Amino acid sequence: MNNAFVDIQKSWDLACSARKNSYSPYSRFAVGAALTLRTGGTVTGCNVENASYGGTVCAERTAVFAAVAQGYRDFEHLVVVTETTPASPPCAFCLGVLAEFCPPDFPIYLANLKGIEKSFTLGELLPHPFQLAKNSTLL
Description:
alpha+beta, Cytidine Deaminase, domain 2, five-stranded mixed beta sheet, 4 helices, 30% helix
């Protein structure tokens, strides 16, 4: 068994555990995410809903925001766990946030409670991300 497979399985376990903390009383769509760092650690997240739906934050973004808040910016892969079949991909908001920190070849593993179902690269899920031009006056 290679180390990459072990890391992905560990990430799946952690994402499943994080999913249990989901606060999703409105959608009843619990999501867990595990963002593995290049340094070897993992930061997890779950979706947190709000009665003001716009205040809801997805599991993927929760994991990215927590990692960034802890000073991490270099990510290895992401595992997203739902209970759907087929497994659900990240929403457009989450893909946009991932594109801010990850290259197009960043691996995203889609899973449900039975295991990993499919993998995509960020570039496959979001082929044309919004980015400010390097010479933008906004930078």
